[in-house]
Amino acid sequence: MAPDTETDLHQRSRWHDPALPLRIGVSTCLLGEAVRYDKGHAKNRFVTDTLSRWFDFVPVCPEVEVGMGIPRPTIRLVEREGEVRLVAPSTGEDFTDVMAAYAEKKVTQLQKLDLDGYILKSRSPSCGMERIKVYLENGMPAQTSDSGMFAAALKRQWPALPLEEEGRLNDHRLRENFIERVFCRNRWRGLVAKGLSRRSLVEFHTAHKLLLLAHNEAAYRRMGKLVGSAGTIPDQDLFQQYELEFQSALNTKATVRRHVNVLQHAMGHLKNKLQSRQKREILTAIQDFADGILPLIVPMTLMRYNIRHFDVEYLMGQLYFDPHPKELMLRNHA
To answer: Hey, where are the domains in the chain?
Structure first.
């Protein structure tokens, strides 16, 4: 994994603990391992060639790990007597109970590794994250399940863990949202490792304020009240509630409108320092971003320059301007 280098505003490197590498679970087939039912793989180049520079991978293939073998008959979710079962139609073998037991145990093991996120194989009856087909016993489609069996256990047992499917990573907004959540989760892990306190929670929340505002304003306000309630509820309850609310807020995609709102909010901290020409330049870039003409990186770069130039302390501390490595180019899309 590539080392995390300091950036212009230095915030990400300040919050990232080198002793806690970014670690994500990933469906083994996405790494190019021949573990699929037909002895093939589903290698994903973005995962193997790009994310591998920044993340350590923990590969998992539930179907192999429950002993289905390679190659193996195809499996699917089948509705039987009002229940959804995991079966191999060609043999009639039912893997529901063994997969359920495996999934519960495996997620517990992964929790001990304290992952920062997980990339799942789409459309898989075990690993698919959403819209997985459920069939009738005659082979006709019956309904769509929320998740494959293993993915459902991940969601249920680890609700704060950032999850995504490899296919959805082709959407640049979903890609940015997932990777942003992974880096945020890693920073939270670092905070916990150092020992959470009310003071450190306030510092963490303050650094993420504009980032949260770009995702979910209602959650941003709820979290402000939650942090402000420190001392009125037990610390452990406070920290647990904050972690769940934090990841839930980030799971809401940052939209163009929300980004514009944050940029205009940040301009309020600069307006008394900028000359009219400088203001017009930034506001024009923000409007061009809003109109889909320019990518977010353009107004962001102009603002970063002025934040640095005028040494605006509050904005210097905002991870919104430095949430993930610029080499990932996640904000370079109009």
So the answer is: 21-170, 171-334
